[in-house]
Amino acid sequence: RSDGHGAKKWQSTDAGIQSHAIKAVTAFLGCLSTEMLRLPPIKESISDILVLLEGVLQTKNVSVLIQAADVSSKLVSSIGNSIRQYPILEIVSPLSCQLSAHQLPTAISCARAMNCILNSLVTARGSTHAEILETLERTNAVASIVSALQSYTPDVHPLSYLTEMISLLRTILWIWPSSRYHVWSNGNLMGKLAHYCLATETTVVAKVLRLYAALALCGHGAMILLKNKVLMAKICELVGTSHPSSTRIEAFKLCHILLRSSKGCSQLMTSRCQPIVEGIIDAMRAKDDKLLVTEGCRTALLVLRYAGNHHQCFWSNAIDKVLYSILTGRCLSSHQSDKVLCDDELFDMVSKNFMDIHPYVWDILGYLVVHCTEDHHPVRKGKGHSLHALISCACLLATDVMRKSSPMTLSKDVQEPALRAVLMMLLSPNGYIQYEEVHAVAISVKSGRVKT
């Protein structure tokens, strides 16, 4: 019906009618396809569904409320990014009001639906974000979530109540920076979150780590986390081999944010250098888990940007051998993994089998050599082949750029990272690095790869 100004409003307060309408919407959404979403009648129907949900989400009937919240999630999942074409804000407000509901199933379903909606609007226009933030503040959404997390008791509340609230809070913190203050300034809540991270099961730990990553985007939030020595010890443990890959990846992602500044790097690496480096090295060696290898490489790159004693820890853990294995590991069979390739063989292998992980190898090598002190000898006795091969290959890729008539045209994705590494070698104060670079370039000149 119309309210007299052209806008539709849902009028029925009968729970039976509301339930039937929700069931009809569920069936309708199950039939939608991408092509159908472009049709005007379908668009009009979706607008009507939002009117229905706005009205029904204000009912007092718990069963109908849960159905409406679940359908809200299904609606967003069904129409994807098209959700931005519709007045989705109309259902954010009633969903947010239900976060403090005493009926736990209602709060859980509404938190799940809100999280689904907000995630779909991450890249929406700034004006949309401003409107949603105003709604969240008006309905005290963050305060309701904080209260839920502080009052959570395993014996009373289901685990899903905790996980859904943590996930929703993480999304809000990620999108709206101003909301982070209400979390990091709350000592009681921070203590509760640390307890969940230290003492609970894997599912909760991973979600808390994601929440910490969003919180650490605020400098004050990051410093509060870094000052908690017990928590930092746990996070450093979580990057280790005794934990599932999914948990280790989330721990690495949190480290990425904590390592954004030199101060953060110093605080994290000064007291926990060895376990972090060992976790990174092990992740970089994980041949069957590409995502874990990538996160390990990203963490190594962020750590090695800064000078410090942690560089010696990486060298002690044979970082050069690990980088060499990444370049060759997917091209050599298991029984060939210890095979020593000559410089030209490695160059041909890398240039013909480029992978997304290779730029990390060259950037990591660059930071290793530029921070390699004058008196440090990076080669372990009798085990210098890996570093020699890496330097030679980088120089061959760089000198190939200077060839005017190269039969092999390499993409910039292959050459630019290697060029950066070579430039870093030029800045290295270490005599061994300089010698290896000069030697590699001289070989290239002698072989005719580049003209003098």
UniProtKB/TrEMBL annotation:
Pfam families: ARM_6
Name assigned to this protein: At1g04390 ARM repeat domain-containing protein
Matches recorded under SUPFAM superfamilies: ARM repeat
Domain At1g04390 ARM repeat: 102-218
Organism: Aegilops tauschii subsp. strangulata
